[in-house]
Amino acid sequence: VQLQAFGGGLVQAGGSLRVSCAASGSSFSVNAIGWYRQAPGKQRELVAAISRGGSTNYADSVKGRFQISRDNAKNTAYLQMNSLKPEDTAVYYCNRPFGVNWSWGQGTQVTVSS
Questions:
Q1: Half-sphere exposure of 52 (CA within 13 A, CB side)
Q2: Is 29 left (phi over 0), alpha (psi -120 to 50) or beta?
Q3: Residue range 69-91, pLDDT digits in tens
Q4: Which of 51, 49, 16, 56 is nearest to 34 (CA)?
Q5: Is-contact 103 2, C-beta < 8 A?
């Protein structure tokens, strides 16, 4: 599976942004998908995950503000981010949320200004 995240950008604090992740290959629809982020000087962290059936989980830091979804027909996952904070600034990636990761694809930069 090859992954490519896109849709990031610069947004003011309190604003919203939706990032997308397009995947190639037939394995996307039968796997759970997660959104990760990596801020400068920090480890990559998992912030949201969605099962193949649509059940979702979120890190405490984004709960109530972010929403993960998926469209298996399009092999695409989405992360809707609302009430953004400067601490949400990071490069965002998608991948499997547990087990062996697929190869990390291109992430997308999200920058939140105060």
A1: 7
A2: alpha
A3: 999 999 999 999 999 999 999 99
A4: 49
A5: yes
Q: Give the N- to C-terminal CA distance of the chain in Å, as an integer.
A: 36
Q: Give the helix/strand (H/E) hosting 38.
A: strand 33-38
* β-pair type (76-81, 90-95): unpaired
Cα separation, 100 vs 95, in Å, equals 10
Task: Report the 10 Å Cβ neighbour count for 17.
Answer: 20
Looking at residue 1, its pLDDT comes to 86
Distance CA 102, CA 91 (A): 17
Query: Residue 73, Cβ neighbours under 10 Å: how many?
Result: 7
Quote the tokens at residue 64: 């109530």
d(CA 103, CA 81): 24
